[in-house]
Amino acid sequence: MTDIFDDLQAEYEQLDTVLAALTPAQWSHPSAAAGWTVSDVVLHLAQSEELAAASIRGELAGPRTRGEVDAMADSAVAAERDIAPADLLARWRAATAFMPAELRAHPRGHRLTWVAASLSPATLATTRLAEHWAHALDITAPLGIPYPDTARLRHIAWLGHRTLPYAFDVEGLAGGPVHCELTAPDGELWHFGDHDAPSAITGPAGDFCRVGARRLAAADSALKATGPHGAEALAVLRNYAF
Length: 242
Description:
By secondary structure, the protein is an alpha+beta fold. Helices cover about 55% and strands about 10% of the residues. The protein has 2 domains: about 140 residues, dinb family like domain (Four Helix Bundle (Hemerythrin (Met), subunit A), Up-down Bundle); about 80 residues, Nonspecific Lipid-transfer Protein, Chain A, CATH 3.30.1050. It has a 4-stranded mixed beta sheet with strand order 4-3-5-6. Strands 1-2 form a two-stranded antiparallel sheet. It starts with a helix and ends in a 6-residue tail after the last helix.
């Protein structure tokens, strides 16, 4: 895969282009994240980037349960949602400005505290890319703004496949090996997992990532699941910490 830290920077830049062009009415428009406006989503991204910075400094407590994290996110947004759009954009830019470089600077083998467990800097960068991509969809879709899929989805698809054992465990399922053959936005085929696995998922990488982000129901996607654990894998697939 291409460098995750460069691709995280590219994702920030793609979203920045969208945010910089928003009108005041668009900032206050409902997003696709239930109960949140576009401003709320950007505030959440800024706050979560600030948590990542705290992790890099060794100041983040963890692990936490999903319920705790969801409640904290809602409370944090509610407490600060009166920030003006210009100030909010400046805050998000400040929070993201040095993240790729600071994550890259950590030596191989270093672990950083994150929500449910400790992560490598590269994996934390992948989660940040995945969250920004998913919330970019929450912002752009209701506003009718294009947000094209890119090759950066490969990192997100890798994360979804890599964490399948964890996702099975969280749902109390035995699970099993799953091979994924996903079609990239440019038509290239991406493979994850053992080709000889008894279960498989095939189809568009964009759909795979959207299902993992809970932005698309598996039944509404163009993905095909086969084998004893393919359908289960689609049901538990997630591109995030829980």
